[in-house]
Amino acid sequence: MVGAPLLSVSRRAFNSSGRLNVKNSLSSNYSTATKTFGNQSILPRLPIPELDATAARYKRSLLPLLSAAEHAQVSQKIDRFVKKDGLGQTLQARMHALDEQEAKLGLSWLDRLWLNRGYLEYRIPTVLNVNWWSQFRDHPDGLISQVPEGTITDFQISRSAGLVSGLLDYSNKINDEAIPPEASRSGPFCMHQIRHMFGTSRIAANPRDTIVTSCPATAKHITVIYKDQIFAVPVLGPNGETVPLKTLENQLRQVVSRVDQLPKEQLQPPVGLMTSEHRDTWGEVRKELETIPTNASTFSAIDSSLFTLCLDNYSSPDDKDLSHRNLAHGKGAHNRWFDKALQIIVESNGRAGINGEHSPCDAVVPQRTVESVLMQEPIVDNLATSNISQLPAPTHLQWSISSKTDQQLKAAQENVDKLIADYDSVLLHYDAYGSDFMKKAKVSPDGWLQMAYQLAYYRQYGKPCPTYESASTRKFLTGRTETVRSCSVESVAFTKAWDNKDIQMKDKLALFGNAIASQSEYMKASSNGHGVDRHLLGLRCQMTPEEAASEEAAIFQDPSYWGSQYWLLSTSNTSPGDLSWGGFGAVVPEGYGANYAIAKQGVKMSISAWNSCADTDATSFRKTVRGVLDEFGQVAEDYLVQK
Fold first, then answer.
1. Which branch of life, at top level (predicted)?
2. N or C: which end of the chain has fewer CB within 10 A?
């Protein structure tokens, strides 16, 4: 998961790191009072960058990662690729033809390519590798302490009902186009991803998964999982009306009561475990299970449900380094359905969060939705709530499995246990300063954090590394993300100089400024659709097998093509993190995943790695990052902040 920056439309503004502030955006030419999709028709289409511009930016991005000889060799291959009448020109023409064809479907040239290549063709387990997690701030009334294991509490049911109610209200507002469209000072943002939150599931299949979704989301039920038992729970009235909180609480209590009273022989197998498996394995199992009408009906109920609520009969430790893991993977991946776009998780003490499947939309969209709900806690019935006091009873979904499937479930448990044991993840809630202080120092908050990661990595490993930062392309119709290659010639010059005692501080700060300027320029270019990674992907996907094997395609055959995308640092800015904070798994075995949220007075971040790699250590890297942040703060106080 590398999501776009987290924005909350109702509260924030575009700051120096390029994040949205509605106060500022309201002064633009685009009203936020129109219907949700009211600006879609005026959005520009995602551009196809000029071939020469991509070649030049790509060459420059390789400079800090290659030797002079290696760079000279690959530069020749790039020049050969983009030359007049060369293969690059042919592929570029095909991309324009593809764009014209996709435009008839309301899509850009990138949409289906990115969905398939970036997500649905990804075959290793999505849990920890693709899915993202987010932990909510505690309820305004706090959490319950010392809840015995195996307990479902009234407070848990109450908070769950409130979260469900808030999300249902948001879903109805999407259906009614009552969510204000987002805009910046430069224009409106695309809202298409909001269509793919509710009633959305990823379906395992070979050789590529699929997505099922519905907009408007017309289902009137959610799925609730308790002790691995899955229920289809009606939560809306016959005409889609929201119902009182007490009615929702009653529905949830029915689920708990019925499961707790079930004899052991009537408990259904934990088929949700299969959603943590390798996608090929799960695809074959699902295909076989669907041939049985009982299972087909169960899959239909799960896939079409608005979202999933997981009621855990335990509480994770208060230690933040441990509590977030329950949101990332649960207890051995039980009581989860990782293929659902939205899984709300509530523990017995009232702690809550979300686990999201990344393919239908970037984390920014559901996280913003959830934040709008969290802002209302404690949630109460509103004037639009109906007086419906009773809904149809929850339906306990049934499975019919063979002994073969039972063995596959046991294998899935073994595999996910190994994956969870390999997962290394820690949090850093840094409170020495935040964006207010960074702005006083006249430094981009996003650039500040990116350079902190660059210096931390250099200090820890003595070398730079390929670094991914996500940029939002939502100013374009159906736009999602583009890559910012944060490791640059300028960032390497800065990291090499910073610890050199022979270099004066004014010179170090000049290099620091150059590095941030380079990162900011790349961010602007990527947000405008002029990064290199999506363009190169598009070109590569236009080749025939014969062309891919030819000398003219040497740009893609060179180790630098894949090597420069081997993201040893994968980062994502989901500022400000006041209401929730999250993370994702490192995207390569030897790498780190770093999610960060910059608030006015502090920074929340998660750092992930894999225990199977002897060279990475999330705890150690966190310590290095913290040291860099402390140092940046002191230097800024001494040299940059006006007294």
1. Eukaryota
2. C
